[in-house]
Amino acid sequence: MKKKRPIINILNDLSLKPYSNLGIGGSARTILIPESEEDFVQTAIENPLIPLIAGGSNTLIADKLFDQIFLLKNPFYEPRFLSGNILEVSAPQKIPALTTFFKQNNLSGIEFMAGVPRVSFGGAIYQNFGAFDKKIENIIISVKALANNKIITLSKDECGFAYRSSIFKKNNYKIISAQMHYTKGDSSRFTEDIEKIINFRKKHQPLKFPNIGSIFKNPQGCYAGKLIEDLGLRGFSIGGAQIWEHHANFIINKNNATYNDVIELIETIQKKSKKRYNILLEPEISILR
Questions:
Q1: Which of 13, 248, 266, 270 is least surrounded by CB atoms within 10 angstroms?
Q2: pLDDT digits 0-9 by tens, 223-282
Q3: Catalytic residue among 57, 120, 166, 284
Q4: Are 52 and 72 in contact (CB under 8 A)?
Q5: CA distances in angstroms from 265 to 60, 164, 215, 247, 258, listed in the order given
Q6: Which of the residues 164, 166, 177, 273 is marked catalytic?
Q7: DSSP character at residue 35
Q8: Is 164 one of the annotated active-site residues of the chain?
């Protein structure tokens, strides 16, 4: 029987700037947008070296011409209820839309992820997103991914979750979907909690400027933002990229910043931190070079 060809929407010669929250990036000769999970898996197996972009919420994209890019723009399917308070969610599902789904169905469990623009469910798992003393690993049951051209399903304990890391990030596995726990909640309480978290982010994070979240992981026993602030770098700029004046672990695109502006700013922080504290700050963001 002849193998069915995957359904892929193709965009040609497109800027990648809209697909990073930092508003920086080159272009791609071809952007591949799979219609379904099966289409994505088949095409990814046939083209294992094509890089992938989902939400772009914590991805710095190089100012260069890429040949091909996978863009997981839309979820493969709506969240699926399984027995035992379990929900199956496709990797491209954006967290803001998932938050709306939770509210409509009186569910609870993802409030800590509210207010982060465009972050995808798969991306949150990839970096083990965490906030307000909670991490996505705490609600994950299992993850289905593409690893070395094979579909695998890993239990939570097999996912190698660590601080802002996972087996998927370490080995560049492509996440397909995951099963997660939820609890029954109250939509009014859920909305109230979400509003508190969003208001906190508005007050403490540069949501009015293009940014990709915290740039560096916190070293053990201290905060990266405090170290950078104590270096006197708060508000420091290179080109159009600036260390945010109110929290030094954010870099904002203040004025048409380039990829090189951001990289040079990151390297400057790392060099000064290493010289002053003997601490090499490790980036938390993903970099698509």
A1: 13
A2: 999 999 999 999 999 999 999 999 999 999 999 999 999 999 999 999 999 999 999 999
A3: 284
A4: yes
A5: 13, 21, 11, 15, 11
A6: 164
A7: S
A8: yes
Q: Catalytic one among 20, 166, 177, 214?
A: 214
Query: Looking at the DSSP assignment, which residues form a beta bridge with residue 68?
Result: 30
Domains present along the chain, CATH in parentheses: 8-71 (3.30.43.10), 80-202 (3.30.465.10), 208-287 (3.90.78.10)
Roughly how many angstroms between the first and final C-alpha of the chain, as a whole number? Answer: 40
* Residue pLDDT, tens place only, 147-173: 999 999 999 999 999 999 999 999 999
Q: Is the C-alpha dihedral spanning 111, 139, 286, 266 positive or negative? A: positive
CA distances from 118 to 4, 12, 18, 233, 238 (A): 32, 23, 11, 28, 26
Residue in 209, 216, 221 with CA at minimum distance from that of residue 272: 216
Whether the Cβ atoms of residue 165 and residue 132 lie closer than 8 Å to each other: no
